[in-house]
Structures are given as C-alpha cells and as structure tokens.
Amino acid sequence: MKELIKELTEAYGPSGNEDAVRETIKRHIAGHVSEMRVDALGNLIALKKGQPQSGIEPRKIMLAAHMDEIGVIVSQIDEKGFLRFAPVGGVNPLTLLGSRVIFADGMIGVIGRERPEKPDEFPKIEKMFIDVGAPDKEHLTRKVGDMAAFLRPLADLGQRLTAKAFDDRIGCAILVQTAQELETTPHDVYFVFTVQEEVGLRGALTSAFGVEPDVAIAVDITTTGDTPEAYPMAVSLGAGPAIKVKDRGMLAHPGVKNWLAETAERLGLPYQFEVLEAGTTDAMAIQTSRAGVAAGVLSIPTRYAHTPSEMVDYNDVQNAVKLLVGLLSGPVKI
Amino acid sequence: MLLLKELSEACGVSGNEGAVRQVILDAIRDRVDEYRTDALGNLIALKKGTGKTARKVMIAAHMDEVGLMIMHIEKEGSLRFHPVGGIDDRVLLAKKVLIGENKVPGVIGAKPVHLLEPKAREQVVKFKEMSIDIGVSSKEEAERLVKVGDYAVFDVPFVELGGALRTVKGKAFDDRAGCAVLVELLRDRYPFDLYAAFTVQEEVGLRGARVAAYSIAPHLAFALEGTICDDLPKKGDTSPTTVLGKGPAITIMDRSVIADRRLVELLIDTAEKNGIPYQFKQPALGGTDAGAIHLSREGVPSAVVAVPSRYIHSPTSLLSLNDLENTVQLMRQTLARVNDLDLTR
Fold it and tell me: For chain A, which residues score pLDDT lower than 50?
C-alpha cells in the first residue's frame, strides 16, 4: 500500500485542480467498482453494488475522502517576474519560508520574502513571493490565477511515513485500498473522492446531494497531542485510527460512532476517540444534505497537519482499511 | 447608457429590492418569454432557446445594494441605524440618505472639525455612535415620517463624468452594473434556454441566488458583477485588484468559488478571438452569487465576469462605460459558443 500512498501524496492537486489525483484514483479502482462517474464539480463517484445477503438490510453508504490539498495561487506578477500569491485553503506562512512549490505544468518555484523590518517579525504571505527563476517578466509563462502545490516527496521512515498532502490523500489511499480489498458487500457503497474540501467542503456538499446516502463516513486526518509541548489532545500516532466524536463543525452521529467502535472491538483492532477543537471535515457538509444523513468520521492521526511534512503511522492506516472492510461486510447498526 | 442610470438611482437595500425589480421588469417584459418573482423576491426570466438543445444556462446579477436600517428613534428625534451588508464606518459620516418608502431625506450627522480633540481626529467613529438627522425636534415628529425597520439608502444621483474611459459615477454599481449587462443580454436569443436571475440579498449572504439556482437547476451559470477596482497610484507593487478601462474582469478564484476552468478558458479564448479587452480579478478576494449557485443541488459549473467599479460599498462608485459595453460584448460572444462546450469529464 506504500506505493499507492506515495503516488497519491506526490500527485498535484490544489483545490479546484484535482484532475491528476482523480486520474490516479480511477486507474487504481477500475475493476473493483461497478460504475464510476465524475459530477459537475469534479467529484469522482464510484459505486460498488451490493450483493443481497439474507438477514442484512441493504443500505446506501457514502465514504468520502477529499482529493484536494492546500496550495497557493498567483495573485499578481511584478515587473521583475516575481509572483505574489494568496493562500488556497489554510496555509501557515511559517511553513512557506524555504519551501518549493510546483505548478500544474511541472514548473518549480521557491518562496522568498521581503526583508523584514524587524528580525523577529512574523512573516506575512503578502510580504512573500514565488521565484521561478525567470530572468525577467518577458521570459515568464505564468499567469495570474495559476495554482501551485508544495513540492515534497514522500519519505518512508519505517513505521511512520512523512509527506505533503496526507490531508487527505491518506484518506483517498484508504478508500482505494478498501475498494480493492472489499470483495463483496450487502450494501451499495459509494466511494466518493471529493473536490475543494480545503476551501469549504464544497465537493462534499454537491456529491452528497447527488448520492443521497443513508449513512456516510468521511475518512480524513486529525491532529494529535503526542508531540513535545503540543496543544493537549487525546489522540496519538500509532494508537489506532480515530473515531470522531466531535469537531468544530459537527457532532458525529452517535450511532455511526458506536458502529465504528463496536466493529473495531469485534475485529480486535485498536482505535481511539477523537474530540477535535478546531477544524472539520466533509462529514459536516454531508450530514446536513437534503433531509439529513447519519454521518461520522474515521480519522487518521497526523502530525504537522497543513505543512509540507505531515506524518502518519502506517499501522493506523492499515487498521483503518481493515476496520472499513469489516464495517462494510456486515449489517449497518446505527 | 444601458439602463444604468435608472438602475443606479433605484433604491434597493437587501430585502427591499422591489423598486429595482420594477425598473428591470419594465425593461425586459417584452424581451423574454416568461418571468416570475419567487418567494424571496428574485426576478427569474426565461428567454427560450431556439430548440437545438436542452441545456439550461443561468445568468445572475443581484438587485440589492448595501445600505442602512433604522434601529431606534431617540427622544429628540435622531435615528440610530445598523448597516445592511458590508460598509466601512469611515464612509458614513456626513452623507445624505433617503429613508423609507417616502424617501425622507436625512443626513448622517458629524461633529464639526472645530470640536474634535486632536486624538479624536485619528479615530474612526463607529456607526453605533452616529445618528441620522431628519431635521425634526422630537420622537413624535420623527415617528410621523419614519419607522423602526425602515431602510435608508445613500442619496446619490447618477452623473456622467466623460473622458476617454467614458466614466460615470453613481451609487450601487455593485451590482446594478451586472443588472444592466444582463438586461442587455436579453435582447438576443440563444441556442439554449437562458434563465436570467435578478437576485435578492446577495450582500447579506448570497441568499437569493441559492434558492434561484435550486429552482432553475441550470447546467451551467454565470454571475455578473460590479467588482472591486483599487487602481489609483499607491506605494509598492500591491495589486490594483482590477484596473478601470482594461475590460471585463474574469474571476479565477475568490472567497466563494473556484470558477470552472472550462468556462474561464472559453471566456479568455472568446475575448482574444474577438479583440475584446479583459483582465483577471486579483484572486482570493470577495465573493459573489456564483458561490451559492455552484453548490446548488449536484453542483453547477460557474464563472464570474465583472465590471471594474471603484469605491464599491461606499455612497458613490465609478465605472467606465467602455468596460460595461465590453462586458456585454464578451458575454454575448461567449454565450454564442457556450452551447458547444463539452462539460463531461
């Protein structure tokens, strides 16, 4: 599965530009799902049709992971060919200094900064620029509106992996792996790879309307409290996938939460409960779609979220796949 | 003038767009096949296509403008108010306003400079400390003229300034400029069914567009806007957002939408093929009805084209009629081609 994770995290896909990620996913799930379609906003919706099983009521289940990643967008080009930019999604300026970014066509740029007035001045994005190495404006092929993503290859640290865009390519990888490993299911399972989560859960909103599920589970990352002097949070790397109780945007459906926990218990898989004070996921948008959807979240504990070097534990990832396969193989108990 | 004067001078703060709707209705009644006003007050007009396609295209322009609402009448008859939509407190002092159905004139009172302590000159007066003076001396007298809940609009006539850019000034070009363009586009018939949505309550949260898009259920959409233009000389190399006279501004990304790339490319290609000037709006700023429309139902590919307008969300805005006419041209030519656009992926 590490190869798949590497391929997905290294793909280019800032919000609104998820094409490369979508094509990669399509290639890996083809043959493992019954049908696929791409909706008006670019969400990839893949259905695995259920096989009736006696004693199990078939339900319509939506699994969602977002394909987009945070990035930057060129807002202005100066006379010398330096590119001013604005963030796409939640970008911490501190993570930009010294970073390299890559555009859709493969052009690479480095991020520079105006001389600070004071040495300890907090860097502001308005005071930064991208330098693509153009000698002057005439030799520059970039336009206002072009988007770039962090450039950073995945590093396999053994038990742990570090890469850009684990948020939420790790969720995408888990969904792909689940689609591959899930041989049969009594339910109609919609694997939905959403767009534009980082700019406001936009793809989840429209795809949930289209799928109209009975139950939904978003698979996304969550932060941890297990690093030195971290903000207190009872989630750690390696302690199992996290089952969300609440975040800033939603209260997980208690039935879905318990269904996830009971399935983990039954399969003997480690898990932890997650209460996230900041942030939210696609599940927030799905939960209030149409007349309402029973929605929960399976989270992958991730250090250094929204930086070019996020970190996950490989066991958590594999256990999340096992949990989902187990979940989808049996009756929905909510 | 493309109806801009009448539209600009009509009063229509969010939630009270009736007068603007009437101006538009009088102009489009004979140009469209059907029209209706929905539950929130959106005016939705259908110009049927030539029957070659089942595609439905929605074009939205919002009728509402920012303004004020009367919250409280003081003992001595002065009126406390609250802004409706985003207004900078600094543009309010000493402005003339018209209040309520009867357009009662008033002025937002300001202390004479003589009375200002040096420190006070450097401070922003908050709207909560301001009041509107309608020249009465008691609460009873005021109550005969205005009611709590009445809207107030800036009292600003439309004026042609002229010059090479054919500049005009007036209130509410955000988004009466878009309304003027949309009214003009309804002269033509297209291969697809065109739904013109003159929306309400954009300035308070894209509310009209949300329900209009739901009922129309379009295949693709455009929002037409009067957008930020901060192009006067300033220090450093900060972006002007858009520049007056450089043509319609195409949005790539703002705070509410990432425009559909295929529509953006069609707009650019159409502008270049027809020699129509265009510019990109500085990304990541502002939001428009497209923010609500593109998220309607299963999603709607959407784009935004705007007329650059200086000083929006203040009493007086300023635009170039060249930009306005070029926006009409760009949209007209783009619509002629939009039917052939492949929207599958």
Answer: none
What is d(CA A106, CA B217) in angstroms, rounded to the nearest whole number? 37
Cα B255 to Cα A93: distance, rounded to the nearest angstrom: 18
DSSP letters, A257-318, are: HHHHHHHHHHHT---EEEE-SS---HHHHHHTSTT--EEEEEEEE-BSTTSS-EEEEHHHHH
A-chain residue closest to B342, CA distance: A40
- Nearest-Cα distance to chain B for A245, in Å, is 27
CATH 2.40.30.40-classified regions of chain B: 67-154
Alpha helices in chain B (DSSP H): 4-9, 18-28, 139-143, 173-185, 207-216, 261-274, 290-293, 321-338
**B287 — contact with chain A (CB < 8 Å)?**
no
Pairing of strands A242-246, A294-301: antiparallel
Among B259, B285, B284, smallest CA distance to A17 is for: B259
Residue contact A145–B283, C-beta within 8 A: yes
What distance in Å separates the CA atoms of residue B68 and residue B93, rounded to the nearest whole number? 13
8 Å CB contact of A78 and B282: no
The CATH number, out of the four listed (2.40.30.40, 3.40.50.300, 3.30.870.10, 3.40.1000.10), of the domain defined by the range B67-154: 2.40.30.40
A199 and B295 within 8 Å at the Cβ level: the answer is: no
Comparing CA positions, the residue from B65, B79, B77 lying closest to residue B128 is B79
> Which residue of chain A comes nearest to B238, CA vs CA?
A76
Is the Cβ pair A75, B300 closer than 8 Å? Answer: no
B253, B294, B298 ranked by CB distance to A73: nearest: B253
Q: CB distance A76–B238 less than 8 Å?
A: yes
ipTM above 0.85, yes or no: yes
A16 Cβ under 8 Å from any chain B Cβ: yes
Q: What residue of A is the nearest CA neighbor of B285? A: A86
Position A131 scores a pLDDT of 97
The answer to whether A124 contacts chain B (CB < 8 Å) is no
Question: For position A299, what pLDDT does the model report?
Answer: 98
Q: How confident is the model at residue B1 (pLDDT cuts 50, 70, 90)?
A: low
Mutating which of A83, A206, A288 best tests the B interface, going by the most B Cβ atoms within 10 A? A206
Q: What is the pLDDT of residue B18?
A: 97
Q: What are the distances in angstroms from CA A156 to CA A13, A306, A308? A: 21, 19, 15
Question: Are residues A172 and A287 both part of a single domain?
Answer: yes
- Indicate the burial class of B39 (C-beta count within 10 angstroms; 0-12, 13-18, 19 or more): exposed
A186 found inside a domain: yes
Nearest CA in chain A to B300: A40
B144 Cβ contact partners less than 8 Å away, ≥ 6 residues apart: none
Is there a single domain that holds both residue A302 and residue A233?
yes
Answer yes or no: pTM beyond 0.90.
Answer: yes
Question: Which residue did the predictor score with more confidence, A205 or B237?
Answer: A205
Partner B contacted by A267 (CB < 8 A): no
Length of chain A: 334
Q: What is the pLDDT of residues B93-124, one digit of tens each?
A: 999 999 999 999 999 998 888 888 889 888 99
Asked if B298's CB is within 8 angstroms of A73's CB, the reply is no
